[in-house]
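Run folding on both entries below.
>entry_1
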Amino acid sequence: MSTASQLAIGIDLGGTHIKAALLERDTGTLVQTCSLPTCDGAWSGSEPLFAHRVRDLVHELETSGGSGPLPVGLCAPGIAHPGGRSIDWMPGRMHGLEKFEWPAFLAREVRVLNDAQAALLGEAWVGSARGCQDVIMLTLGTAVGGAILSGGRLIRGHIGRGGHLGHISIHADGAQDAFQTPGSLDSFLGNQTLRQRTQGRYDSTHALVAAALAGELEAQEIWAASIRRLAVAAASLINVLDPEMLILGGGISTGAGDALLKPLQHYLDQYEWRPGDHKVRLMLASAGEWAGAIGSVRELESPGRED
């Protein structure tokens, strides 16, 4: 077992589950993992129940590691405070998360960041982007998220909004999404809009992909149109950010695999600008379900920003 000074805890606080991991801080190696349901909407007095569940998981891992208080990296949806002490903006769900002060509640060193940004840090540390300095990550799931690594550093932006790649516009005359973006990538690809986009025929992207692979013509047309839009967005991001790699993560990517990767590469072969024949590598995320927790520990090494 590593000594306490070599250990840290990563927490991935999601809308459904809380994933907690005890890691070797210098290598990102998982020592132990555990999880609990989030129970979004439940309260313990004036505090969200998920905060108490996070604290229980932290204490469980510290006990297993034979340690006193350990530093904690915590990721969650939303825009993180520049100083890394809370999620400052997350409307509509994860009630009680906004402005919740994690260092005070857990009484130890805590750094908080956005979950997609954490996933990219995990991929850059131990996953598909290991050794890379310039990477775009798109997370495809209930919604479309993302993160950007440029020159080895996360692009966070002025208020932490950097990397919300699902909310770029790919159709200027489309309906506005929840973030006011007309015709966003999220609107055309996320699971949450699928029933509307398919007139109620498919309940999930997994069902859509299964039907397409089974030879259903309508499903094949819808899936191909979705991937083409993704390729248009990806080619545009490549032009702006000039990455060496584009990583696809999230539940849709994991479930679809080659059914996503191969046609996306086909469209990128048509749309990607390749000066000097330079081709951006297209990869699936490989750090697994603990990428967010792993990346959250990596964030502990970041100098961060003050208020």
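>entry_2
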Amino acid sequence: MRDFRGKVAVVTGGAGGLGRATAERLIRAGAKVALWDLDRDRLEETRRLLDPLGVVAAYALDVGDRDEVFDAARRVENELGPVDLLDNNAGIMRPGTFLEADLQGVEATVRVNLLSYMWTTKAFLPGMITRKRGHLVFVASAAGLVGVAGMAAYSASKHGVVGFAESLRQELRRDKIEDIGMTIVCPSFIMTGMFDGATPPRWTRWLTPEEVAEKILAGVCSGKLYVSEPALIKWLPLMRTLPAAVYDRITRITRADSALEGFSGK
């Protein structure tokens, strides 16, 4: 998708952070954007902020609720038109180790970070296939490529996003559906408040929502499958080929095993 003018985009988790930054760039590029978020006040604040730039609409819903997702999808297509770009960006992170985590927190993490992506894709992909145009963006994480201490449920959900997206892409290719683009986004820590108090592993840095949003749109325009920031993130899957002792030594050297110490994010 090289031209966003007149296209309709849905951005989940669109009230702030990376979602807001991505929505702003889509609107500036000429797209009509539907913001989805659970936080009604922040959602309306973002809508007012972006309204002078172009067409933007706000939909308050729980993206982890399947019925709410399908209802909102119908409303968007009735009010803005058929959806051309789906940016699955909604996400939550709960602090603490897995043994410390409460069951409701684990469930909520998987529901928002993974199941919501499946529900939204179910809602919009069939129409994209019928119209023979569309693009799916799946915001995963560097923690979706390797496990990270202190975020077991989060990392599991993001591994699930990567596996879901890659499997879906292979199904589309097998069925000769070649008109649907896909971009999987795997950034390190982004300054959105989600990971306040954390320390990026050695040789990585804090990313801004604006720079990651720029990379996402560039990836969509160029048809890039993976957007990994910083660039070295793309090599993380190779860690799985290493002996366990070497793997563990690297996590200690990079301080990846202690990145969440001091974490106080929202």
